[in-house]
Amino acid sequence: MLKRVIAFGLMLMILLGCAAFAEEEIEFTLEDIVELEEVPVYGEVDWNFPVDLKDMDPVMIRLANKHCLLSKEDKPDPIMSMVSRKANKDGSNANGGVNKASGSKMQLQETCGLALVEMFEGALKDGIKLYLKSAYRSYQTQNTMYYNRLKKNHGKDDGWVSKPGASDHQTGLGCDIVSRSWRDKAMNRDFGKTDEAKWMAENAYRYGFILRYPSDKEEITEINFEPWHYRYVGIPVATYIKENGLCLEEFHEQLQAAIDEFIAAGGDPAIVDPYIQRSAE
Questions:
Q1: Which domains, ranges and CATH numbers included, belong to the chain?
Q2: Residue 243 dihedral angles phi and psi, to the nearest 5°
Q3: Is 243 part of the annotated catalytic residue set?
């Protein structure tokens, strides 16, 4: 609080000094000055992080990787089934569905699923048709996939299939999105050259999604570049990640530093505890 009062006073002095020497009258409102220094305060402690706590849902920013594992029981709630899109005569979405790469049952966490419908509709307006290829996967399903991958590669983990508990898909917030021509293809980084992949890389954040495994973050995510894999985190967080060229692991590293600073300054640990990432093991 003291920091903001000092900043306000200094800014007011600067503005008054400028006004004294200005040849033309310049009008400043109190709102103009206050907007220059807005730091969220929880209790008596400032929250010094670009994304406010109230703009982050702990569920939506949940981290899942080999160092921060989900439990066997972790499942998205509420969860929704993604239905195939049906169009009205004018081309509008008749049933709130999405284009699906197959007829198999696919589910997503509800907030994520609804945002995905909006993103698919937004893409269509730009002449881009997207298809949902893979969505929520249970711990058990991921365990089977991982075992089969290891068996195929003579026991070697090649970074293409996450170990059980480490899969972003288990959160119900991760999804694989492709173009029409890639619905039946084996996935590889060449998909990133398509117009669909380029559109998502540029626009997904507007709908709350991030590219989960960027090409320049492989050493951090420990997962190969996947231009088809998008993860819902909410618009404020997605925007921050996009603007700063981060991956989700880097975002959480910065967030944890802000949490540590908040607690060290006397902030209530209970306020930030839901945002701390913990492994099930």
A1: 2-38 (no CATH), 54-252 (3.30.1380.10)
A2: -65, -25
A3: no
